[in-house]
Amino acid sequence: MPHHCHIRLNGIDMHIAEQGEGPLVLLLHGRPETWYSWRHQIDALAAAGYRVVAPDQRGYGATDRPAAIDQYSIFHLVGDVVALIHELGEERAVVGHDWGSMVACNTALLRPQVVRGVVAVSIPPLPRETRPPLTVTAQRFGDGFYQNYFQEPGVAEADLGKDVATTLRLAFAGVRAAEPSEGFLGLFAEPGALPAWLTEEDLVTFVEQFTTSGFAGGLNWYRNLDRSREQTAAWQDVPITPPSLYISGEHDAMRTVYPMDDAVRAIVPGLRGIADVPGCGHWTQQERPEAATGALLDFLRGL
Questions:
Q1: At what angle do helices 289-301 and 39-47 cross, to 10 degrees?
Q2: How much is the pLDDT for 190?
Q3: Residue 56 · residue 14 · CB < 8 Å
């Protein structure tokens, strides 16, 4: 079982789950997730001889949630990761799922000297946009696209927080609506039952965590998309140099939003492989833990 504690770093108290001894593997969750989304990998990686640390990232779970929107830029998120690595006295691999993938890849981009290897799960390493990201998504998918819908403070918080259990059930287990409506929840129709990979106990754990934390912190990550692009102008076309791996579910809808195309491959010269997980959707490490963990271990052993 992981040990839980809080570490003061980068102006916030960060909650982490830690288990095992050996080279450090840092696991960064996406949205709407917490450290708990790595529950399968924590045990398996620790048993394989790694020191595994899964934090609740800024704005999530039992970690602090600054009120100001501008406290969630990519520099803040990467700063948290770098400070955590230093606090742990390590320089090792960083693994991220969904939004955590973007943080992991930007950590490898901005501070490659503290990252020995980086793994992107679901979302591949992304080149810096030549236009503001929210302009791109609005033009590609319309102003009602969920990332654009999240921009108005208070609106999405009220929508997602109205019934936390329903929100998370739809996010994790909902099926794509035949006629999607505006917003995030409008993308999904009620599932007939929870999928085999998500137990009622798992769902209760996530509901308890988000009932405590709310959704504002995670939404503020999206509200910094354009700001973070402006701040990283000096890294335009700079490659991610540490060895890297991309893991993707065969049926992950994010593959259409963020394809693994030539532009992506150009910024990861150290890409060591792409692991396609058959029969898997977006919640890769939860849906197919054996496949995800196996790909991780193969990569880590090669560092």
A1: 40
A2: 85
A3: yes
Asked whether the predicted pLDDT for residue 188 surpasses 90, the reply is: no
How is residue 15 annotated by DSSP?
E
For the chain, the domains span 3-301
- Active-site residue, selected from the candidate residues 56, 98, 159, 252: 98
The per-residue pLDDT for 184 is 85
Query: Mean pLDDT throughout 197-210?
Result: 97
Residues 16, 167: Cα–Cα separation, whole Å: 25
Residue 136 near residue 129, CB atoms below 8 Å: yes
24 SS3 class: strand
Using DSSP, state whether 196 is helix, strand or coil: coil
Peptide bond into 32 cis (omega under 30): yes
3-301 belongs to CATH 1.10.8.420:
no
Taking the mean position of all CA atoms in its chain, how far away is CA 266?
A: 22
Query: Could you give the angle at which helices 200-213 and 164-173 cross, rounded to 10 degrees?
Result: 130
The DSSP element (H or E) to which 81 belongs, if any, is helix 74-88
Catalytic residue among 15, 76, 97, 282: 282
Q: What is the mean pLDDT of residues 10-36?
A: 96
Decide if 77 contacts 106 (C-beta within 8 A): yes
Q: Is the pTM of this model over 0.70?
A: yes
Assign 121 to helix, strand or coil: strand
282 labelled catalytic: yes
Q: Does the pLDDT of residue 206 top 90, yes or no?
A: yes
